Please model this.
Amino acid sequence: MTPAPVVQKLVAANNKHNGGGSKPEEMQAVLSWLDRFGYFSKPLADWQNISIGDIVDAVRTWQKRYHLKVDGYLGPKSLRAITAARCGCPDILQPKRKDHVRFMQAKALAGNLQKWNKGKLTYYIKSRVGGIKPADFDRVIDAAFQAWEDLCMLQVERTSKASTADIIVDTGQGPGSDFDGPGGTLAWAYLPDGQDRQLLMRFDLGDTWILTPQERGILLFNVACHEIGHLLGLDHSKIESALMAPYYNVAIAVPQAKDDVPRIQARYGKRVDAPPVVPPLPPGGSGGGDGSRFTLTCSELVVEGYTLFAKP
Model:
């Protein structure tokens, strides 16, 4: 919890700019969000060294990154973006922050690409989300890994041995697992650390997970594919049409040619027989899916209980 004096200063500054209406609880949520996702170089707990100018600069950086009006203050559109469903990995990884170290690889030189040092990886499914049959969950995770493997010179396969797996697929719920209930943070994953240590990916049990866009909830494939991008070394993209953009988008399910594909191929090389980037087949089983490809238009982006990020 941010100390009250900092919150009150932000409320006063925001009200002066916007003509009133800012609430302490909203500003508290904004500060906590900016802190969690890396917009302060020091943890907000060290509030004595954080000025209103620092906060305004952090808000500007965030607004620019997400194509919002860049003024350093918090209007309705900015506040809505704060509550949108998204990935739990920080947008800006701060190397001096202990709470960010687990998400990042140790860079020996600026500009080094975070990646695995081997060409074959294994993953172990430790637990699964509710509402989806285990076999269907496993099939989606397999397909999400395959979407990346098809593009680059990596081999990835499932294993039955957790102790030797490179990647653990798991679930969690509540603050102890860095989750916040329905909406908000949907999942998170660690990035490679340069030493090929075992990495973890988790999905929030507090969210409603689905297999096809005809259902109401969060599409498991889209989120899994995004988090696997982190596991393979990609940080968040500033391009909002990329799979690796931090906000959940039901219409973006696979690595995109404009950003995700060249970044993964820069790390592992281009697969000679790489297929064209196309929408995935809907998974079959309990979630439906008749084997036909699907497309979505903006008018169809309806997800129960969540606010999707949209360019203002």
Remarks:
- Residues 98-300 form a domain with the Collagenase (Catalytic Domain) fold (CATH 3.40.390.10).
- The helical segments are 4-18, 24-36, 52-65, 76-82, 98-101, 134-149, 220-231, 260-268.
- Residues 211 and 287 are 5 Å apart (CA to CA).
